[in-house]
Amino acid sequence: MPRSLVTGGAGFIGSHVARHCLELGHDVVVLDDLSGGFTDNVPEGATFVEGSVTDVALVSRLFNENGFEIVYHLAAYAAEGLSHFIRHFNYSNNVLGSMNLINESVRADVDCFVFTSSIAVYGTNQLPMTESLTPEPEDPYGIAKYAVELDLRAAHEMFGMDYTIFRPHNVYGEHQNIGDKYRNVVGIFMNQLMRGESLTVFGDGSQTRAFSHIDDVAPIIARCPSVRESRNQTFNIGADTPYSVQQLVEVVAAAFDQDPEVEYLPARNEVLHAYASHEKIERVFGEAAAVPLDVGIARMAAWAKSVGPRRARGYGDIELRKNLPDSWQSVVEPAAEQ
């Protein structure tokens, strides 16, 4: 029975990965600071520890007490657009926190370190995004993710620690933090509908993303350590078909049987079109049946209705307010304790 650590396991993707690990027979410890997750997301059978990957002493103690063989590192503050304005916080959490885990993993001789990166590492104008491209991240979030990727490769070369890197994109589904105002457009739309609010769209809604249901992503991440061909490799993971944000509005509204008003806000500085090639992951893991967008949205909508609208712990310690979108100026809140 592998002893596995899942960071961010009370959050969205992490909680699903933890559940699949349990189903595979792993003994799972979840570490999460609850800044974006909820304890009711932690799957039954996992041991939950509240705390941050930035806490060096806590991370060291957990490794010493548990003898982890596999590390699934999904904890991150993943507000990509907001990362421009919280640079110190972004790098402290997403880079330095990751280094704490890598250090302890090397000391513990873990069998495999699994890291969820992001297609944010590619930047813009690299379509379709393939793993052979040279990353050109354009925001601090993508820069942080790529820095961890590079460090894992360096750790492998120096210490022989195996790793697998996944670059998921636009993942949605049950357990998503629908109260988060800064990321996860599907969750934002659903929360707004349940609150009787207008749907907010940046720009004209023509920007496209290949929205990926969690069931297309989490099972593969969980089982990758047992797939030897995936060791020391990087994979795009997610859906193939891009949809515009305007199309997403229509699908989400239909799932709630509503005809909402849409408020179009000034466009943000973001990649207009983003979709990735998945030929590499299909060669290694096999071709998986993708969840159609309308089916996945319906599943998530049913879950969202069952939990109701949510209010997340906000991020208020904005470091740079220059060029901060007006719609975010009015919703910042006191920062969550880390």
Percentage of residues in helical conformation: 25-40%
Distance between the termini: 32 Å
**Main sheet: which strands, in order across?**
3-2-1-4-5-6-11
The proportion of strand residues reads 15-25%
- How would the global form be characterised? globular
Mean pLDDT: 91
Order of helices and strands: EHEEHEHEHEEHEEEHEEHEEHHH
Structural write-up:
With 338 residues, this protein is α/β, with parallel strands linked by helices. Helix content is 35%, strand content 16%. It has ten helices and 14 strands. The protein has helices at residues 12-23, 56-66, 87-108, 140-159, 185-194, 218-223, 245-255, 279-285, 293-307, 326-329; strands at residues 3-7, 27-32, 47-50, 70-73, 112-116, 163-168, 171-172, 199-202, 208-209, 212-213, 233-237, 243-244, 262-265, 273-274. The strands form four sheets. The protein has a seven-stranded parallel beta sheet, sandwiched between helices. Strands 12-9-14 form a three-stranded mixed beta sheet. The protein has a two-stranded parallel sheet with strand order 7-10. Helix 5 (185-194) packs across helix 7 (245-255). The chain is globular. The two termini are 32 Å apart. Residues 332-338 have low confidence and may be disordered.
Features:
338 residues, three-stranded mixed sheet, 35% helix, globular, disordered C terminus
Concise account of the structure shown:
The protein is α/β, with parallel strands linked by helices and 338 residues long. It has helices at residues 12-23, 56-66, 87-108, 140-159, 185-194, 218-223, 245-255, 279-285, 293-307, 326-329; strands at 3-7, 27-32, 47-50, 70-73, 112-116, 163-168, 171-172, 199-202, 208-209, 212-213, 233-237, 243-244, 262-265, 273-274.
